[in-house]
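User: Please predict the structure of the protein below. I'd like the answer in structure-token form so I can feed it into my own downstream comparison script.

Assistant: Understood. Taking the following sequence of 128 residues as input:
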Amino acid sequence: MQLKFISVMVDDQSKALKFYTEVLGFEKMSDLPFGEYRWLTVTAPDGMAGVELVLEPMAFEPARVFQKALFDAGVPATAFISTDIHAEFARLKAAGVAFRGEPAVMGSVTVVLFEDTCGNLINLVQPA
């Protein structure tokens, strides 16, 4: 068994694609019509080969409620790993990414939350 697709709910697929590719530096993998939405995936250039992040449209009202509840509670939708969190933080902050604080050591990891402009908090994590 292996992971292939990981989903993150987004409020606007076009806005999400722009943020994840132009700001975070991910690469578009798939962009196919899927009814009124799209099957839209990106991949991290230095991530595990074959693993794609699905920019999932929120076409289901309970998904909107769940996403907002997570966001309002400060709970990240997912986490991305960094090998140099301070450099990544500086690069993304300079690109206008909204962070919820500064990188902080929490046990064996350094973490910082940021907003993805699509209704999600993402935890940026650097293992020790």
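That's the full token string. Residues 61-73 form the longest helix (13 residues).
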